[in-house]
Design brief:
The complex is a heterodimer of chains A (324) and B (357). Chain A is mostly helical. The longest helix of chain A has 41 residues. Chain B has 357 residues and is mainly alpha-helical. Chain B is 59% helix and 3% strand. The model of chain B has no long low-confidence stretch (mean pLDDT 79). The chains are: A mainly alpha (324), B mainly alpha (357). At the A-B interface, helix 1, helix 5, helix 6, helix 7 and helix 9 of A face helix 6, helix 7, helix 11 and helix 13 of B.
Chain lengths: 324, 357
């Protein structure tokens, strides 16, 4: 009976934790939308700047577009539009094209490059971290440490430029600029450049966690039971080491988003990042605001998933967060 | 001595009472008796930190490199005889030329250009008969001296980073300390606010701020200030939670110290280590963010320059004139790398038990 109660309490705990995280995320997204809305009103000029318009015409135009309503009503309308994916039209980059249409064609490219970068970084980072931990205090360990220090501290666009100059310009292995004819070959260099930070952080983290797990009692037990070789490393050591690695995912994704802006510009990738850069440079406010909303929504969504995932995997986090 | 006494006491047939001898007793704590623990000598905290720090070779080398870069940032722009904004349109895109080294066949102003018909070597200095003109790092597409501009840019990048780190330190530390000290409702409201601010991607905050504020040094510092204080506040809060129940806090509260005194005079000096480490970590982040903003076109306005804007300018011609992009990139990479390693070294020095992440 007490056991049952405990389990039920546990379930409530998970639910209230998730509920809390979801509520905070929604609040954050609303806060961002509010900031964007205020910014839009702070921007110089009004939509109807024509001096020939009479006050009556102004009033009727305002009524038509709902600009005569109280700001609160306007705000909620705005929120509704944002969540429906209606971001208005672009003024400068391509005149009168709905922004959602601009983004629709570019988002898949960015996601492909970003996804490739994450998978490359995670795979090689894990490999490097495991090798370094297994060959602790050897030359392999040193190499891993050096790579991870360099990868963590040098910005991704320095790598992008170096790759672009050597592999792209000097050796001509890969196209220097993105071309739609060869989407895969031209995603290779940007993905590598973007993945290095992910690779380095994951390698560093895996190494630390693996070292801790390898010296634990249950590894000794597993070994004394006669388990050895790759089952020992993969099933017993890595699985336990992987749990905390989930925490580094969120900062990595942030870096990937920032990095993608510059890397997309360097390789002329027609993705969301380069759209944002162009929009900033040509003062196309609507596009900047729409993309800010999308970036924020993606970021908040990912943070939410990572947090919930971690809370579900590791009960200690939930309890600690509750004590906050 | 004790043994002797015991034997005497237990001896059944003592004929006469024990006569005390002068050497039976000795003063305790005299110079030759006092035990000096040489294994665990208590040392000054800072002395130990310094010792641990200097044992870390990587951190010491990083410190030296950072100091060198700092030296050049301070004096480099005045060394070459050019100014950072002076343009000589007749002397554009000159390759690096350094006195003495040019006699060895390197840095003599030669530049190999690859064209469709093959590669050829050109030398701007010889073509224009300029025997006395030296651009140590070459000149850029507008005929400005890259040496001067790189160090001028370093100066601005470092200035922005240091200002931002200092302001973050003040805001984040106070926020975290106050939130952690008062606890309860204050803490939970302050933490919810921090969580919401943290939920907005930095990229978005910085971009939007740069759009509505005039471009310049202060705007970048402001943008960095708004985004970077959260890390510091978290560290300060965590340290505060560790310390606020300790005895010395209770003692000083009993003596009638007020809250602000306890926070800033009693607890703060005890958490200096993690805070200095965090400041050092926030410097490379600030340098990186500034470089990123400049690259995107939201950075320092021309003719001023920063490392990011130099890289962005040189990027447009980096396949034809690679020497223009190499100096700012190397300085940027070295700064980021060394500040990170310095911060790592400091963290180990302050807290040797820290689990490396």
């Amino acid at each position: 009976m007490p056991q049952f109660c405990f389990v039920e309490g546990e379930g409530n705990d998970v639910r209230s934790y998730i509920l809390k995280r979801v509520l905070i995320s929604i609040f954050t997204l609303l806060a961002i939308t509010l900031v964007l809305f205020i910014l839009l009103h702070l921007m110089p000029g009004s939509p109807f700047n024509d001096e020939k318009l009479t006050p009556a015409q102004h009033a009727s135009l305002n009524a038509k577009y709902g600009l005569d309503q109280p700001l609160v009503v306007q705000f909620f309308k705005y929120v509704g539009n944002m969540f429906k994916g209606d971001f208005g039209v672009s003024y400068k980059i391509s005149k009168n094209t709905p922004i959602s249409q601009l983004i629709e064609s570019r988002l898949p490219i960015s996601i492909r490059v970003g996804g490739l970068a994450v998978s490359l970084g995670a795979a090689f980072g894990l490999l490097l971290g495991i090798v370094a931990a297994l060959k602790h205090n050897t030359i392999w360990d040193t190499i891993c440490t050096v790579i991870s220090v360099i990868g963590v501290s040098i910005p991704s666009y320095v790598f992008a430029l170096a790759l672009s100059y050597t592999l792209g310009f000097k050796l001509s292995w890969f196209p220097m600029l993105y071309s739609n004819q060869a989407p895969f070959a031209s995603s290779v260099m940007p993905s590598i450049a973007l993945s290095l930070f992910t690779l380095a952080s994951i390698a560093r983290f895996t190494r630390t966690e693996m070292l801790e797990v390898l010296s634990s009692d249950y590894m000794l037990l597993a070994e004394s039971k006669g388990i050895s070789g790759s089952p020992l490393i993969l099933q017993h050591a890595l699985r336990n080491a992987l749990i905390p690695i989930v925490t580094v995912l969120a900062p990595l994704i942030v870096d990937l988003m920032t990095g993608s802006l510059v890397v997309e510009k360097i390789f002329s990738i027609p993705g969301v990042g380069s759209l944002l850069v162009t929009a900033i440079q040509s003062n196309d406010y609507n596009v900047v605001i729409a993309l800010s909303f999308i970036y924020s929504a993606m970021y908040i969504g990912i943070m939410l998933v990572v947090d919930i995932l971690y809370g579900v995997i590791d009960p200690r986090i939930r309890v600690a967060k509750k004590g906050d | 001595m004790r043994k002797q006494n015991k034997r005497n006491l237990t001896a059944p047939a003592a004929k006469e009472p024990y006569q005390f001898q002068p050497d039976d007793f000795a003063f305790r704590g005299s110079a030759d008796v006092t035990l000096i623990d040489t294994n665990f000598t208590s040392e000054n905290f800072w002395k130990e930190v310094r010792k641990r720090f200097f044992r870390n070779k990587g951190a010491v080398i990083s410190l030296i490199v950072v100091l060198c870069i700092g030296f050049f940032a301070a004096f480099g722009p005045n060394m070459s005889g050019h100014t950072y904004s002076e343009q000589k349109l007749t002397q554009k895109n000159f390759a690096p030329r350094v006195p003495l080294l040019e006699d060895l066949g390197i840095f003599n102003g030669n530049e190999t250009l690859n064209t469709t018909t093959g590669s050829k070597i050109i030398n701007g200095y010889q073509d224009k008969n300029l025997t006395n003109v030296y651009y140590w790092f070459g000149s850029d597409t507008l005929g400005r001296d890259i040496w001067t501009r790189v160090w001028e840019g370093t100066r601005i990048s470092l200035g922005i980073a240091l200002c931002a780190a200092l302001i973050d330190f003040l805001i984040g530390m106070s926020y975290g300390l106050i939130s952690g000290y008062y606890g309860g409702r204050v803490d939970s409201i302050m933490q919810r606010i921090a969580e919401i601010v943290n939920g907005i991607p930095r990229l978005v905050i910085v971009t939007l701020l740069m759009l509505i504020l005039p471009r310049g040094f202060l705007t970048i510092v402001f943008a960095l200030m708004i985004t970077e204080w959260i890390g510091m506040s978290r560290i300060a809060r965590a340290e505060m939670l560790k310390l606020k129940e300790s005895e010395f806090v209770l003692a000083s509260r009993t003596l009638g110290a007020r809250d602000l005194r306890i926070i800033f005079r009693e607890i703060l000096p005890n958490i200096v280590g993690p805070i200095i480490t965090q400041i050092m970590f926030s410097i490379p982040t600030a340098i990186f963010t500034e470089a990123f903003l400049s690259f995107v076109g939201l950075g320092i306005p021309v003719p001023m320059c920063s490392l990011g804007s130099l890289i962005a300018d040189a990027f447009n011609s980096f396949t034809t004139h690679p020497y223009q992009i190499i100096p700012p990139i190397i300085v940027l990479a070295l700064l980021m790398l060394c500040f990170n390693m310095l911060a790592d070294g400091l963290r180990e020095a302050f807290d040797p038990k820290f689990k490396e992440m």
